[in-house]
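FORM 7B: Structural annotation worksheet

SECTION A. Query
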Amino acid sequence: MREHRFSVTLGDRWGEGIVAVEAGETVDLDVRLESVHEGILVSGTADSDYAGVCGRCLTDIAAPVEVEFQELFAYPGDEETDFEVQDDHVDLETLVRDAVVLSLPFQPVCQPDCPGLDPNTGEKLAVSTDAESPAPIDPRWSALRQITDQDAPAGSRGAEKEES
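SECTION B. Predicted structure
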């Protein structure tokens, strides 16, 4: 068994969604290599940081990502395997990249209760300073609202709203 701890600087971007580990970012690896009958068992952790935008309000976000991985690198033989030992070496790039990319959030948010953007104005609802905006009215009912606004005096409309 051998244990190694090292850092790798990424040459390419890892990830295709709205968040990714950017090129030039450092990935810290803590790897344990064990010789077993079928090949070499690789287990360890990878730590890095991802960056992107919030899926609701489009604010820039960055957060750490830590993943654990374990995979058997089989000795070359008759059976086809995903990972094989090549010339007494194991290539960890595909294994670590897949583990990191699969652990990235699918719909990242800047905070768990991020309200997103106002559908009418496009402003961020979290920082909106306007007074409470009225609930949107279904356009199919807007004609009825015009009728009630014409018939009722201003004071009685407020009383009707309180009763209902």
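SECTION C. Observations
The first helix runs from residue 93 to 103. Helices lie at 93-103, 142-151, 154-163.

SECTION D. Sign-off
Analyst initials: ____
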